[in-house]
């Protein structure tokens, strides 16, 4: 007999025998009547056992059940106006697949709140909560929508290495690992190998996978292991082309969520608005003037702090009423050696961050493809030429203008769903204190 899901149970199945499987969310005993609320990945359904209709052995099994036990039930569907789905199942057979210990460490119903640390200690149980299930179904659809646009526009999926022989950006923020007795590092970003893939002749590509940052950050927007949708394109006109690509990906992702996740969005109390394009763009050095007028002094060449980002977010809301926006032409002094400078304004880089409601969502822009310029910038940044030769040497053999970006999947999910903490958007988050489960 083929299993049906909770969301498929309806009054039209009245009189039909069905098979359902799931977890016991609730068990109610009213003497002559026993109700089981069964939960599966699609929702809830009701199993009703009447002493007059059900054999004694089956009733005893039902009485032995604990919350979160896993069962399968075979029974007939019966119309029931007061039941969820307006239908219930009258059981004929019940098999206990796994009996749960009692009590369960967390209350999945949400009636009793647990702090986040406790929830993450028992993450597998925490994930069973319908709101958490909704978060990850929406996250899955965000990726699906993004990939739809990329595939439709002939971007090729690739898989770049997670282990690197040298730190890709700053040696202070990498995780060192033992690689057959040699020193290796978990990648901070797949970008350098994306560039080398462009140099290898694959002109349009995307890479979905993890990256690691060894920062001891304890904020609500940082985790040590995160995932990105990373994109790179050859024969780029300029960095503005990467803005158009990101806009299309975001629009496609949000459309997919809006179309396919109505139930989940309603459960989380979120309304998704597909943004209008093009997204607004702010640029340096004009940003210094905007901040100064708002009472925030930032020295030329300095990075934006959280206060500055908040001011710019409010400015965008006031002027453009937009949620997504770009910041372009960052000072070259705060950027890595591989970014392309603006030739006529060399103190600034063709470097772009995408922001969503005041939080940085992606970083990217146009890369430097001219070998002599890369070498100049390596020296200017005080890096060892030998240390980056594994990367720079290929630019001696003809690499086209190119650029790209990496959109943070967890951050996009957090901002879209108005979640307080990014840890709720990772199945098993990693932060400076947490490596288990």
Q: Quaternary status of these chains?
A: single chain
Largest sheet: 8 strands, mixed
Percentage of residues in DSSP E strands? 25-35%
How many strand elements? 18
CATH topology assignment of the largest domain: BirA Bifunctional Protein, domain 2
Please identify, by name, the CATH architecture of the largest domain: 2-Layer Sandwich
Given the C-alpha coordinates, what overall shape results? elongated
Parts with pLDDT < 50 across at least 5 consecutive residues: none
The number of helical elements comes to: 12
Radius of gyration, in Å, reads 27 Å
The main sheet orders its strands as 6-10-11-18-17-16-13-12
Mean pLDDT: 95
Which class best fits the helix and strand makeup? alpha+beta
């Amino acid at each position: 007999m083929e299993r049906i899901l909770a969301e498929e149970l309806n009054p039209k199945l009245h009189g039909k025998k069905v098979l359902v499987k799931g977890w016991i969310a609730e068990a109610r005993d009213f003497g002559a009547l026993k109700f089981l609320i069964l939960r599966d990945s699609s929702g809830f359904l009701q199993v009703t056992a009447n002493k007059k209709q059900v054999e004694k052995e089956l009733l005893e099994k039902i009485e032995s059940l604990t919350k979160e036990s896993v069962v399968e039930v075979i029974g007939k569907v019966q119309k029931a106006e007061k039941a969820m789905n307006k239908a219930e199942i009258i059981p004929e057979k019940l098999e206990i697949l796994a009996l749960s210990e009692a009590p369960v460490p967390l209350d999945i119903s949400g009636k009793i709140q647990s702090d986040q640390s406790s929830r993450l200690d028992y993450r597998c149980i925490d994930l069973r909560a319908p709101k958490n299930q909704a978060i990850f179904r929406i996250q899955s659809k965000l990726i699906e929508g993004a990939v739809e646009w990329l595939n439709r526009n002939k971007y090729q999926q690739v898989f770049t290495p997670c282990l690197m022989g040298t730190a890709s950006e700053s040696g202070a923020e990498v995780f060192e690992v033992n690689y057959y007795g040699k020193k290796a590092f978990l990648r901070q970003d797949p970008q350098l190998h994306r560039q080398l893939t462009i140099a290898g002749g694959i002109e349009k590509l995307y890479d979905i996978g993890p990256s690691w940052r060894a920062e001891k950050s304890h904020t609500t927007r940082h985790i040590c292991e995160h995932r990105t949708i990373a994109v790179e394109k050859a024969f780029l006109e300029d960095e503005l082309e990467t803005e158009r690509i990101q806009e299309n990906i975001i629009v496609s992702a949000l459309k997919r969520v809006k179309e396919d996740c109505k139930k989940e969005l309603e459960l989380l109390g979120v309304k998704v608005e597909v943004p209008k394009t093009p997204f607004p763009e702010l640029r340096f050095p004009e940003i210094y003037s905007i901040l100064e007028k708002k009472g925030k002094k930032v020295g030329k060449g300095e990075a934006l702090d959280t206060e500055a980002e908040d001011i710019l977010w409010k400015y965008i809301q006031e002027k453009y009423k937009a949620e997504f926006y770009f910041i372009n032409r960052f000072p070259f002094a705060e950027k890595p050696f591989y970014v392309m400078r603006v030739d006529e304004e060399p103190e600034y880089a063709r470097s772009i961050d995408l922001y969503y409601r005041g939080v940085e969502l992606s970083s990217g822009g146009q890369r430097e493809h001219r070998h002599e310029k890369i070498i100049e910038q390596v020296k200017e940044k005080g890096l060892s030429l030998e240390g980056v030769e594994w990367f720079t040497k290929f630019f001696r053999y003809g690499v086209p203008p190119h650029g790209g970006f990496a959109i943070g999947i967890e951050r996009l999910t957090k901002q879209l769903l108005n979640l307080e903490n990014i840890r709720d958007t990772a199945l098993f988050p990693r932060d400076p204190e947490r490596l288990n489960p």
